[in-house]
């Protein structure tokens, strides 16, 4: 099975590529070749038992994507995106990458002799709702940010193309993936990872919302499991609806901090300082904090998010050293 | 107030232009200029008390649309579309006109000194549901046809652009507009108008579904009223949700035929022959047959569909002669 990861140099793309290199297979089928594509050629994962091509290019350039999705490709994981803060700051860039990029992915897939599985990462940000909401599977997407709107448009495009037999798409509406390694950034949701990551690095972090504030999250490990599941699953039962609300976790900030304290002690917990920021609370407070995720759980076989302590420990095991090194700490 | 109608040479565009020429105003504000744009320059309505420009061009060509949406334009009515059967037969044409066309409309609007009202015509075909369904206002759009998917994408784009203050959009999800003048065509919904229009012309018509089959319809008069309302209404209360399910009518085919008989006599009714067509029943049977349309009625001021007898008589008054002439009858 030949696989292409678009956006393969990003947070989840790199993790998925490493996992493929380790496992050598997806859903029992051996990986025969992997293409990684991003703005700059991504590093190949170490020790892969299959050839890896690394390509640089723009996902909104149909020729570049066609080069990355060559005949024989069975699975395209489309992660390339301009994320929320950037798409909000630069509307045209968001449209170019998130909408025209997805159109270019579809074009490349249609040129293949048979329709490939396309795994697309949509987002919780494609919904409104807010703190009180528990969104059912048929909740309407009324996005209140450009990134979410563009993701919802991509979902519609890929669902229609699936109905027509051009591709065989699964769109996973990922929760806020936590703990994200790296540095705090300008994303409104940056604090969700920062309040765990920074103390684990021995650094202070600011909490812009109250401890009762709830967020819909999943771990990077869980996100990678879901991508792998979506790459191999049977889509026959999905019908016209190719969008999946996966079984993430609705976590209160206070519970996340309690898990931090259990894993890393009270000194780590004490590094988090309350610094109310109504602007951040307003943005993140507009995102739904919980989903029922019935269909993903009961019918589509998506696995459950692990408990918070495990989510914190997974960052320590998987990402702490690398983050320390990358940040020169 | 300066107005542009894109797709101004089509069924509803021509009717709207005539109505503007007759009224000379919208929502109490005088029309100062009208631009009609379509693949070929549309005919100017007779007796307009304002200048009319007629332009030919492709709505997916940003330069052509920019020419049609000049500085000073306050309202853009975007009707240009490849309709359902054609968008299903030619996926690329549908994407070009229905998606890239709407992108070009947005580009042209962003070049204006202040954000114009954009009235976009989405469709009942952007929903699934079927005969049993009564769709609430927050029903999710899971289209089962490319036209509906492309319309839903256009809605997302224009809602986001409205949130950003680039345009001020209202997207009306029109029911099947009945009675449509002209000839029977290959659209699966063609019979909905044909079973009234053909007998009124003295011609036979075939009914592919049973008399209990229900359809969500509105008259051309009502569709034009809704467009006029959307051109002038206050959008302040709409929030992020710029989509409107207008108060159409869920009509059983048997009730439509009874109205035909009341208006035109049993001889007209007798021209309709039952000719079951499971393929047509399957397609049209997937569209929702009813909506609650609460928000449009109670909060947004959209007017009610008139009763069926009036819908039939309106065709006789407004369109029968012209249809006869156009078809050489
Ligand atoms: N991480 C999350 O919390 C989260 C939540 C919901 C959805 N998602 C989605 O999951 C996917 C992966 O997320 P991530 O956290 O790994 O994001 P990321 O930003 O780390 O990775 C995205 C990659 O896309 C690449 N990219 C951007 N523009 C490109 C272009 N024009 N051409 C080619 N490549 C381009 C970037 O260089 C980056 O490597 C994205 O689609 C994201 O929108 C992520
Ligand atoms: N009539 C209905 O039952 C109905 C129902 C739901 C939605 N709608 C929507 O309402 C709008 C008007 O409907 P209508 O019945 O008047 O349709 P119509 O087909 O009569 O008119 C559409 C017009 O768009 C023009 N057009 C097509 N491609 C174009 C292009 N590339 N560039 C410029 N113009 C182009 C056509 O020439 C035509 O004149 C459409 O957007 C349609 O999708 C109609």
Automatic annotation (TrEMBL), chains A, B:
Membrane-spanning residues: none
Keyword flag NADP: yes
Pfam families, A to Z: Epimerase
Record SUPFAM superfamilies: NAD(P)-binding Rossmann-fold domains
Keyword annotations: Carbohydrate metabolism, NADP
Domain NAD-dependent epimerase/dehydratase: 3-203
Protein name per the record: SDR family oxidoreductase
Matches recorded under PANTHER family: ADP-L-GLYCERO-D-MANNO-HEPTOSE-6-EPIMERASE, NUCLEOSIDE-DIPHOSPHATE-SUGAR EPIMERASE
UniProt organism field: Craurococcus roseus
NADP is among the record's keywords: yes
């Amino acid at each position: 099975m030949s696989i292409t990861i678009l956006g393969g140099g990003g947070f989840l793309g790199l993790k998925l590529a490493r996992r493929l290199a380790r496992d050598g297979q997806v859903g029992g089928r051996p990986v025969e070749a992997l293409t990684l594509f991003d703005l700059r050629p991504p590093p190949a994962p170490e020790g892969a038992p299959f050839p890896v091509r690394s390509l640089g290019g723009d996902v909104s350039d149909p020729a570049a994507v066609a080069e990355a999705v060559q005949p024989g490709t069975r699975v395209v994981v489309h992660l390339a995106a301009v994320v929320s803060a950037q798409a909000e700051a630069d509307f045209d860039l968001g449209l170019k990458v998130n909408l025209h990029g997805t159109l270019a992915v579809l074009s490349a897939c249609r040129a293949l002799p048979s329709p490939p599985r396309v795994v697309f990462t949509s987002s919780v940000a494609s919904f409104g709702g807010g703190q009180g909401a528990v969104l059912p599977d048929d909740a309407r997407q009324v996005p209140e940010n450009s990134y979410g709107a563009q993701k919802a448009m991509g979902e519609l495009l890929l669902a229609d193309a699936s109905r027509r037999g051009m591709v065989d798409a699964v769109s996973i509406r990922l929760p806020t993936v936590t703990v994200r390694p790296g540095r705090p950034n300008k994303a409104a949701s940056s604090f969700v990872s920062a309040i765990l990551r920074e103390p684990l690095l021995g650094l202070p972090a600011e909490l812009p919302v109250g401890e009762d504030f709830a967020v819909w999250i999943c771990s990077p490990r869980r996100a990678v499991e879901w991508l792998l599941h979506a790459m191999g699953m049977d889509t026959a039962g999905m019908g016209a609806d190719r969008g999946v609300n996966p079984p993430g976790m609705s976590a209160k900030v206070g519970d996340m901090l309690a898990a931090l304290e259990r894993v890393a002690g009270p000194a780590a917990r004490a590094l988090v300082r309350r610094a109310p920021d109504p602007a951040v609370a307003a943005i993140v407070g507009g995102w739904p904090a919980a989903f029922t995720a019935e269909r993903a759980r009961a019918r589509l076989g998506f696995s459950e998010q692990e408990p918070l302590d495990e989510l914190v420990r997974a960052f320590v095991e998987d990402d702490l050293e690398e983050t320390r090194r990358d940040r020169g700490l």
